[in-house]
Protein: magnesium-protoporphyrin IX monomethyl ester (oxidative) cyclase
Amino acid sequence: MAAEMALLKPISKFSPKLSPNPITRPGAKSFRVSMSTTSTPTKTSKKGNKKEIQETLLTPRFYTTDFDEMEQLFNTQINKNLNEAEFEALLQEFKTDYNQTHFVRNSEFKEAADKLDGPLRQIFVEFLERSCTAEFSGFLLYKELGRRLKKTNPVVAEIFSLMSRDEARHAGFLNKGLSDFNLALDLGFLTKARKYTFFKPKFIFYATYLSEKIGYWRYITIYRHLKENPEYQCYPIFKYFENWCQDENRHGDFFSALMKAQPQFLNDWKAKLWSRFFCLSVYVTMYLNDCQRTAFYEGIGLNTKEFDMHVIIETNRTTARIFPAVLDVENPEFKRKLDRMVEINQKIIAIGETDGIGFVKNLKRIPLVAALVSEILAAYLMPPIESGSVDFAEFEPQLVY
Ligand SMILES: [Fe+2]
Ligand SMILES: [Fe+2]
Structure:
Protein backbone atom coordinates (compact mmCIF):
# COMPACT_ATOMS: atom_id res chain seq x y z
CA MET A 1 0.00 0.00 0.00
CA ALA A 2 1.31 3.40 -0.70
CA ALA A 3 -1.35 5.97 -0.44
CA GLU A 4 -3.42 7.24 2.39
CA MET A 5 -7.04 6.50 2.74
CA ALA A 6 -9.46 8.07 5.12
CA LEU A 7 -13.12 8.75 5.39
CA LEU A 8 -14.21 12.25 4.68
CA LYS A 9 -14.42 14.63 7.55
CA PRO A 10 -13.18 18.11 8.42
CA ILE A 11 -9.58 18.19 9.37
CA SER A 12 -7.21 19.92 11.66
CA LYS A 13 -3.70 20.70 10.58
CA PHE A 14 -1.22 17.87 10.72
CA SER A 15 1.81 18.57 12.82
CA PRO A 16 4.11 15.69 13.62
CA LYS A 17 5.48 15.73 17.11
CA LEU A 18 8.61 14.08 18.30
CA SER A 19 8.54 12.69 21.76
CA PRO A 20 11.79 11.83 23.48
CA ASN A 21 11.09 8.17 24.09
CA PRO A 22 14.14 5.97 23.68
CA ILE A 23 14.09 3.44 20.91
CA THR A 24 16.24 0.43 20.42
CA ARG A 25 16.96 0.78 16.74
CA PRO A 26 20.65 1.29 16.15
CA GLY A 27 21.84 4.24 14.12
CA ALA A 28 19.14 6.68 15.08
CA LYS A 29 18.84 9.03 18.00
CA SER A 30 16.31 8.69 20.72
CA PHE A 31 13.10 9.91 19.20
CA ARG A 32 9.83 8.26 18.68
CA VAL A 33 8.01 9.83 15.80
CA SER A 34 4.34 9.81 16.50
CA MET A 35 1.67 10.29 13.90
CA SER A 36 -0.66 12.92 15.11
CA THR A 37 -2.57 15.98 14.13
CA THR A 38 -2.90 17.37 17.58
CA SER A 39 -0.58 19.00 20.01
CA THR A 40 -0.51 15.87 22.13
CA PRO A 41 0.55 12.95 20.02
CA THR A 42 0.57 10.42 22.79
CA LYS A 43 -1.01 10.35 26.19
CA THR A 44 -0.68 8.08 29.12
CA SER A 45 -3.85 6.24 29.95
CA LYS A 46 -5.24 5.88 33.44
CA LYS A 47 -3.91 2.37 33.70
CA GLY A 48 -0.33 3.43 33.55
CA ASN A 49 2.25 3.34 30.86
CA LYS A 50 0.05 2.42 27.95
CA LYS A 51 0.20 5.18 25.37
CA GLU A 52 -2.57 6.16 23.04
CA ILE A 53 -2.17 7.97 19.80
CA GLN A 54 -4.60 10.66 18.86
CA GLU A 55 -5.30 10.90 15.20
CA THR A 56 -7.69 12.55 12.82
CA LEU A 57 -9.46 11.12 9.84
CA LEU A 58 -6.85 12.34 7.42
CA THR A 59 -3.86 10.55 8.93
CA PRO A 60 -2.77 7.30 7.29
CA ARG A 61 -4.84 4.55 8.84
CA PHE A 62 -4.44 0.95 9.91
CA TYR A 63 -7.12 -1.49 8.84
CA THR A 64 -8.67 -4.65 10.05
CA THR A 65 -11.48 -6.71 8.60
CA ASP A 66 -13.80 -9.67 9.10
CA PHE A 67 -11.31 -12.49 8.55
CA ASP A 68 -13.97 -15.20 8.83
CA GLU A 69 -15.86 -13.67 5.94
CA MET A 70 -12.59 -13.40 4.02
CA GLU A 71 -12.03 -17.12 4.55
CA GLN A 72 -15.45 -17.84 3.10
CA LEU A 73 -14.88 -15.58 0.12
CA PHE A 74 -11.67 -17.39 -0.78
CA ASN A 75 -12.89 -20.88 -0.18
CA THR A 76 -12.70 -22.55 -3.59
CA GLN A 77 -15.38 -25.03 -2.53
CA ILE A 78 -17.86 -22.21 -2.01
CA ASN A 79 -16.79 -19.68 -4.61
CA LYS A 80 -16.47 -21.21 -8.06
CA ASN A 81 -15.44 -17.88 -9.58
CA LEU A 82 -11.94 -18.14 -8.17
CA ASN A 83 -9.78 -18.60 -11.20
CA GLU A 84 -7.04 -20.76 -9.73
CA ALA A 85 -4.85 -20.61 -12.84
CA GLU A 86 -4.88 -16.81 -12.74
CA PHE A 87 -3.95 -16.72 -9.06
CA GLU A 88 -1.24 -19.34 -9.61
CA ALA A 89 0.24 -17.13 -12.37
CA LEU A 90 0.09 -14.08 -10.08
CA LEU A 91 1.81 -16.06 -7.35
CA GLN A 92 4.68 -16.96 -9.69
CA GLU A 93 5.05 -13.28 -10.53
CA PHE A 94 5.26 -12.35 -6.85
CA LYS A 95 7.72 -15.15 -6.21
CA THR A 96 10.00 -13.77 -8.90
CA ASP A 97 10.58 -10.88 -6.53
CA TYR A 98 11.76 -8.32 -9.07
CA ASN A 99 12.80 -5.83 -6.41
CA GLN A 100 14.74 -8.18 -4.18
CA THR A 101 17.96 -6.20 -4.62
CA HIS A 102 16.43 -2.85 -5.46
CA PHE A 103 16.26 -1.20 -2.07
CA VAL A 104 19.95 -0.74 -1.34
CA ARG A 105 21.05 2.55 0.12
CA ASN A 106 24.23 4.49 -0.47
CA SER A 107 26.08 7.43 1.02
CA GLU A 108 24.08 9.93 -1.06
CA PHE A 109 21.16 9.69 1.36
CA LYS A 110 22.82 11.07 4.45
CA GLU A 111 24.68 13.72 2.49
CA ALA A 112 21.45 14.90 0.85
CA ALA A 113 19.60 14.91 4.17
CA ASP A 114 22.31 17.01 5.80
CA LYS A 115 21.92 19.61 3.07
CA LEU A 116 18.18 19.92 3.66
CA ASP A 117 17.40 22.56 6.23
CA GLY A 118 14.69 24.94 7.32
CA PRO A 119 11.04 24.21 6.57
CA LEU A 120 11.88 21.85 3.71
CA ARG A 121 13.76 19.56 6.10
CA GLN A 122 10.74 19.36 8.39
CA ILE A 123 8.40 18.73 5.49
CA PHE A 124 10.64 15.92 4.24
CA VAL A 125 10.53 14.26 7.62
CA GLU A 126 6.77 14.49 7.55
CA PHE A 127 6.66 13.01 4.07
CA LEU A 128 8.85 10.09 5.15
CA GLU A 129 6.86 9.33 8.26
CA ARG A 130 3.46 9.52 6.60
CA SER A 131 4.65 7.34 3.73
CA CYS A 132 6.26 4.88 6.13
CA THR A 133 3.05 4.61 8.15
CA ALA A 134 0.96 4.06 5.01
CA GLU A 135 3.31 1.33 3.76
CA PHE A 136 3.44 -0.27 7.17
CA SER A 137 -0.34 -0.27 7.34
CA GLY A 138 -0.37 -2.40 4.17
CA PHE A 139 2.22 -4.71 5.67
CA LEU A 140 0.09 -5.39 8.76
CA LEU A 141 -3.12 -6.04 6.86
CA TYR A 142 -1.57 -8.27 4.19
CA LYS A 143 0.45 -10.21 6.73
CA GLU A 144 -2.67 -11.02 8.72
CA LEU A 145 -4.60 -11.98 5.58
CA GLY A 146 -1.72 -14.24 4.55
CA ARG A 147 -1.87 -15.92 7.94
CA ARG A 148 -5.66 -16.27 8.10
CA LEU A 149 -6.21 -17.60 4.57
CA LYS A 150 -3.48 -20.24 4.69
CA LYS A 151 -5.83 -23.17 5.19
CA THR A 152 -8.68 -22.00 2.99
CA ASN A 153 -6.73 -20.82 -0.02
CA PRO A 154 -2.95 -21.34 0.19
CA VAL A 155 -2.27 -19.63 -3.14
CA VAL A 156 -4.10 -16.40 -2.29
CA ALA A 157 -2.61 -16.57 1.22
CA GLU A 158 0.92 -16.80 -0.14
CA ILE A 159 0.35 -13.83 -2.43
CA PHE A 160 -0.79 -11.79 0.56
CA SER A 161 2.33 -12.84 2.45
CA LEU A 162 4.54 -11.84 -0.47
CA MET A 163 2.78 -8.50 -0.71
CA SER A 164 3.42 -7.98 2.98
CA ARG A 165 7.10 -8.70 2.22
CA ASP A 166 7.03 -5.85 -0.34
CA GLU A 167 5.32 -3.44 2.03
CA ALA A 168 7.71 -4.26 4.84
CA ARG A 169 10.55 -3.49 2.48
CA HIS A 170 8.98 -0.17 1.47
CA ALA A 171 8.26 0.82 5.07
CA GLY A 172 11.76 -0.23 6.13
CA PHE A 173 13.37 1.78 3.36
CA LEU A 174 11.41 4.89 4.34
CA ASN A 175 12.27 4.34 7.98
CA LYS A 176 15.95 4.17 7.06
CA GLY A 177 15.36 7.47 5.28
CA LEU A 178 14.20 8.87 8.62
CA SER A 179 17.47 7.74 10.16
CA ASP A 180 19.21 10.18 7.78
CA PHE A 181 17.37 12.83 9.78
CA ASN A 182 18.33 11.14 13.07
CA LEU A 183 14.81 9.86 13.59
CA ALA A 184 12.99 6.56 13.42
CA LEU A 185 9.41 5.46 13.54
CA ASP A 186 8.81 2.95 16.28
CA LEU A 187 6.79 0.51 14.21
CA GLY A 188 6.30 -1.96 17.05
CA PHE A 189 4.80 0.80 19.11
CA LEU A 190 2.57 1.93 16.26
CA THR A 191 1.31 -1.62 15.76
CA LYS A 192 0.12 -1.80 19.33
CA ALA A 193 -0.90 1.76 20.00
CA ARG A 194 -2.79 2.84 16.91
CA LYS A 195 -6.46 2.36 16.47
CA TYR A 196 -7.50 0.04 13.66
CA THR A 197 -10.30 0.98 11.30
CA PHE A 198 -12.68 -1.89 10.61
CA PHE A 199 -13.85 -2.37 7.03
CA LYS A 200 -15.92 -5.26 5.76
CA PRO A 201 -14.02 -7.31 3.14
CA LYS A 202 -15.91 -5.67 0.30
CA PHE A 203 -14.74 -2.25 1.43
CA ILE A 204 -11.21 -3.49 2.03
CA PHE A 205 -11.13 -4.47 -1.65
CA TYR A 206 -12.31 -1.08 -2.90
CA ALA A 207 -10.08 0.86 -0.53
CA THR A 208 -6.88 -1.12 -0.98
CA TYR A 209 -7.27 -1.38 -4.74
CA LEU A 210 -7.56 2.41 -4.95
CA SER A 211 -4.79 2.91 -2.46
CA GLU A 212 -2.37 0.74 -4.46
CA LYS A 213 -3.25 2.30 -7.79
CA ILE A 214 -3.14 5.87 -6.55
CA GLY A 215 0.18 5.03 -4.90
CA TYR A 216 1.47 3.75 -8.22
CA TRP A 217 0.46 6.95 -10.00
CA ARG A 218 1.91 9.19 -7.31
CA TYR A 219 5.28 7.43 -7.32
CA ILE A 220 5.63 7.17 -11.09
CA THR A 221 4.59 10.79 -11.60
CA ILE A 222 7.16 12.06 -9.11
CA TYR A 223 9.80 9.77 -10.62
CA ARG A 224 9.18 10.95 -14.20
CA HIS A 225 9.07 14.59 -13.16
CA LEU A 226 12.40 14.39 -11.33
CA LYS A 227 14.00 12.50 -14.18
CA GLU A 228 13.12 15.38 -16.46
CA ASN A 229 14.01 18.02 -13.87
CA PRO A 230 17.02 16.62 -11.99
CA GLU A 231 17.77 20.00 -10.38
CA TYR A 232 14.89 19.24 -7.96
CA GLN A 233 16.27 15.84 -7.01
CA CYS A 234 17.08 16.89 -3.46
CA TYR A 235 16.89 13.49 -1.79
CA PRO A 236 17.77 10.20 -3.53
CA ILE A 237 14.75 8.19 -2.36
CA PHE A 238 12.83 9.38 -5.44
CA LYS A 239 15.31 7.59 -7.73
CA TYR A 240 13.94 4.31 -6.36
CA PHE A 241 10.34 5.09 -7.23
CA GLU A 242 10.37 3.62 -10.73
CA ASN A 243 10.78 -0.01 -9.64
CA TRP A 244 9.07 0.61 -6.33
CA CYS A 245 5.83 1.72 -7.98
CA GLN A 246 5.77 -1.50 -10.00
CA ASP A 247 5.27 -3.31 -6.69
CA GLU A 248 2.24 -1.12 -6.02
CA ASN A 249 0.94 -1.73 -9.50
CA ARG A 250 1.21 -5.50 -9.02
CA HIS A 251 -0.57 -5.22 -5.66
CA GLY A 252 -3.37 -3.31 -7.34
CA ASP A 253 -3.63 -5.89 -10.11
CA PHE A 254 -3.94 -8.62 -7.51
CA PHE A 255 -6.89 -6.80 -5.92
CA SER A 256 -8.38 -6.42 -9.36
CA ALA A 257 -8.21 -10.21 -9.78
CA LEU A 258 -9.71 -10.67 -6.30
CA MET A 259 -12.64 -8.42 -7.15
CA LYS A 260 -13.26 -10.21 -10.43
CA ALA A 261 -13.52 -13.38 -8.38
CA GLN A 262 -16.18 -11.69 -6.23
CA PRO A 263 -18.57 -10.34 -8.88
CA GLN A 264 -21.24 -9.71 -6.25
CA PHE A 265 -19.07 -6.76 -5.15
CA LEU A 266 -19.08 -5.25 -8.61
CA ASN A 267 -22.32 -5.99 -10.36
CA ASP A 268 -25.19 -4.19 -8.69
CA TRP A 269 -26.37 -0.67 -7.96
CA LYS A 270 -24.93 -0.79 -4.43
CA ALA A 271 -21.52 -1.62 -5.84
CA LYS A 272 -21.79 1.42 -8.11
CA LEU A 273 -22.64 3.71 -5.21
CA TRP A 274 -19.85 2.33 -3.05
CA SER A 275 -17.34 2.52 -5.90
CA ARG A 276 -18.09 6.20 -6.35
CA PHE A 277 -17.98 6.78 -2.62
CA PHE A 278 -14.54 5.20 -2.26
CA CYS A 279 -13.17 7.02 -5.31
CA LEU A 280 -14.37 10.32 -3.90
CA SER A 281 -13.09 9.54 -0.44
CA VAL A 282 -9.61 8.69 -1.69
CA TYR A 283 -9.35 11.62 -4.12
CA VAL A 284 -10.65 14.25 -1.70
CA THR A 285 -8.44 12.96 1.11
CA MET A 286 -5.37 13.21 -1.09
CA TYR A 287 -6.27 16.63 -2.47
CA LEU A 288 -6.94 18.17 0.93
CA ASN A 289 -3.88 16.54 2.46
CA ASP A 290 -1.56 17.63 -0.31
CA CYS A 291 -2.93 21.16 -0.44
CA GLN A 292 -1.93 21.48 3.21
CA ARG A 293 1.60 20.50 2.22
CA THR A 294 2.29 22.48 -0.91
CA ALA A 295 5.77 23.28 0.42
CA PHE A 296 6.76 19.66 -0.14
CA TYR A 297 5.55 19.48 -3.72
CA GLU A 298 6.92 22.92 -4.57
CA GLY A 299 10.19 21.85 -2.95
CA ILE A 300 10.55 19.17 -5.60
CA GLY A 301 9.38 21.48 -8.38
CA LEU A 302 5.78 20.32 -8.70
CA ASN A 303 2.59 22.32 -8.76
CA THR A 304 0.58 20.55 -6.06
CA LYS A 305 -2.85 20.87 -7.65
CA GLU A 306 -1.64 19.95 -11.13
CA PHE A 307 0.21 16.97 -9.72
CA ASP A 308 -2.84 15.81 -7.78
CA MET A 309 -5.22 16.24 -10.71
CA HIS A 310 -2.89 14.24 -12.94
CA VAL A 311 -2.76 11.46 -10.34
CA ILE A 312 -6.55 11.53 -9.84
CA ILE A 313 -7.31 11.41 -13.55
CA GLU A 314 -4.88 8.55 -14.22
CA THR A 315 -6.03 6.58 -11.19
CA ASN A 316 -9.64 7.07 -12.22
CA ARG A 317 -8.93 5.82 -15.75
CA THR A 318 -7.19 2.74 -14.35
CA THR A 319 -9.99 2.17 -11.85
CA ALA A 320 -12.65 2.41 -14.56
CA ARG A 321 -11.35 -0.91 -15.90
CA ILE A 322 -12.65 -2.74 -12.84
CA PHE A 323 -15.07 -0.59 -10.81
CA PRO A 324 -18.63 -0.58 -12.17
CA ALA A 325 -18.85 3.22 -11.88
CA VAL A 326 -16.34 6.00 -11.36
CA LEU A 327 -16.50 9.76 -10.95
CA ASP A 328 -16.34 12.15 -13.86
CA VAL A 329 -13.07 13.66 -12.63
CA GLU A 330 -12.18 15.05 -16.05
CA ASN A 331 -15.21 17.31 -15.93
CA PRO A 332 -13.76 20.76 -14.94
CA GLU A 333 -16.57 21.11 -12.41
CA PHE A 334 -15.04 18.30 -10.36
CA LYS A 335 -11.78 20.23 -9.89
CA ARG A 336 -13.71 23.41 -9.11
CA LYS A 337 -15.48 21.53 -6.34
CA LEU A 338 -12.19 20.18 -4.99
CA ASP A 339 -10.75 23.69 -4.95
CA ARG A 340 -13.74 24.99 -3.03
CA MET A 341 -13.26 22.18 -0.51
CA VAL A 342 -9.64 23.28 -0.07
CA GLU A 343 -10.73 26.86 0.59
CA ILE A 344 -13.29 25.79 3.17
CA ASN A 345 -10.84 23.41 4.76
CA GLN A 346 -8.28 26.20 5.09
CA LYS A 347 -10.85 28.30 6.93
CA ILE A 348 -11.58 25.41 9.27
CA ILE A 349 -7.87 25.02 9.94
CA ALA A 350 -7.51 28.77 10.53
CA ILE A 351 -10.19 28.64 13.24
CA GLY A 352 -8.28 25.85 14.96
CA GLU A 353 -5.17 27.98 15.03
CA THR A 354 -6.77 31.01 16.67
CA ASP A 355 -6.80 31.58 20.42
CA GLY A 356 -10.19 31.07 21.91
CA ILE A 357 -12.51 28.78 23.76
CA GLY A 358 -13.06 25.38 22.17
CA PHE A 359 -16.81 25.72 22.33
CA VAL A 360 -16.77 29.03 20.44
CA LYS A 361 -14.39 27.60 17.85
CA ASN A 362 -16.73 24.68 17.31
CA LEU A 363 -19.65 27.04 16.78
CA LYS A 364 -17.65 28.93 14.18
CA ARG A 365 -16.83 25.68 12.43
CA ILE A 366 -20.44 24.53 12.03
CA PRO A 367 -21.34 26.55 8.90
CA LEU A 368 -17.99 25.69 7.31
CA VAL A 369 -18.37 22.01 7.99
CA ALA A 370 -21.86 22.17 6.51
CA ALA A 371 -20.44 23.89 3.43
CA LEU A 372 -17.72 21.25 3.10
CA VAL A 373 -20.20 18.41 3.43
CA SER A 374 -22.46 19.97 0.82
CA GLU A 375 -19.51 20.31 -1.63
CA ILE A 376 -18.57 16.69 -1.05
CA LEU A 377 -22.16 15.60 -1.57
CA ALA A 378 -22.45 17.68 -4.73
CA ALA A 379 -19.26 16.07 -6.08
CA TYR A 380 -20.64 12.64 -5.24
CA LEU A 381 -23.89 13.37 -7.02
CA MET A 382 -22.28 14.58 -10.24
CA PRO A 383 -23.30 12.30 -13.12
CA PRO A 384 -20.93 9.32 -12.87
CA ILE A 385 -19.24 7.32 -15.60
CA GLU A 386 -20.46 3.78 -16.04
CA SER A 387 -17.44 1.52 -16.25
CA GLY A 388 -16.03 -1.91 -15.51
CA SER A 389 -15.13 -4.82 -17.71
CA VAL A 390 -16.33 -7.89 -15.85
CA ASP A 391 -18.74 -9.99 -17.81
CA PHE A 392 -21.34 -10.47 -15.11
CA ALA A 393 -23.75 -12.44 -17.26
CA GLU A 394 -21.19 -15.19 -17.36
CA PHE A 395 -20.48 -15.02 -13.68
CA GLU A 396 -23.89 -14.81 -12.11
CA PRO A 397 -25.25 -18.28 -12.77
CA GLN A 398 -22.14 -19.77 -11.24
CA LEU A 399 -22.56 -18.18 -7.82
CA VAL A 400 -23.08 -20.85 -5.24
CA TYR A 401 -24.08 -18.74 -2.23
FE1 LIG B 1 4.16 -0.22 -0.85
FE1 LIG C 1 1.40 -1.83 -2.09
Summary: The chain is about 60% helix and 5% strand.
